[in-house]
Amino acid sequence: MATKLVDLVYWRKMRKTGLVFTGLVISLASLFQLSAITVLSHICLGVMSVTFILRLFYKLLELLRCNPGVHPFQSYLDHDSSLTDKETVMLVEEVVLLIAFAFTEIKRLIFIESMIDSFKFIVLLYLLSYVGVLTSGLTLVITAVILVFSVPLFYKKQQMRIRRMVRAVKALVKRIKTMCHGLYNSMKPAPAHAHAPAAAPTPASASAPKQKAKSK
After folding, report:
1. pTM score, two decimals?
2. Beta carbons of 9 and 152 less than 8 angstroms apart
3. Please, are residues 9 and 148 in contact by the beta-carbon 8 Å criterion?
4. What is the mean pLDDT of each run of 10 residues along the chain (216 residues)?
């Protein structure tokens, strides 16, 4: 399944990806005017109108003895899409782990286990409140679908140029950090002990040579 998704996203099968992408965008755009049940029913009716006509056509060819009784969709009917017991258990475990992880993270953020993480979560919720006022969730889903099908292909075609731009930006950021660090070091006050005057000799140490001279 992961390999098929990657093939779709990177447009390795142009016809299949085009059909999936166009169908997704049209279906999601239709939800602006129609309900989800209506859209799903119309999609199924459209698909069945094509498959029913093809099935009748092959049946007619079979009656005219131009077709040896081959079903046009036999490959799809023979495809085994059922899950084994092991695959079912693994899938259920993954879903349960994802739900448990999401619940644990939300609980950790709401009850302020980490101040920084909870503050980031508050900022995210605040921004999402503005996003919810400006647009709808369906618009965000359509935008996400378009980005998923366009960004990987764009990166694949412009990979060398994007890498050069990223390296240039990293070098610029590093240079700015170096300049700021040097400016901070030049403006930082020197330690107090570096400018302290030399300690004056104590009276005892100053009178010691005189006592030696008198004794001679």
Report:
1. 0.58
2. yes
3. yes
4. 77 84 87 86 90 89 78 80 82 92 92 89 90 84 89 85 90 88 74 52 49 47
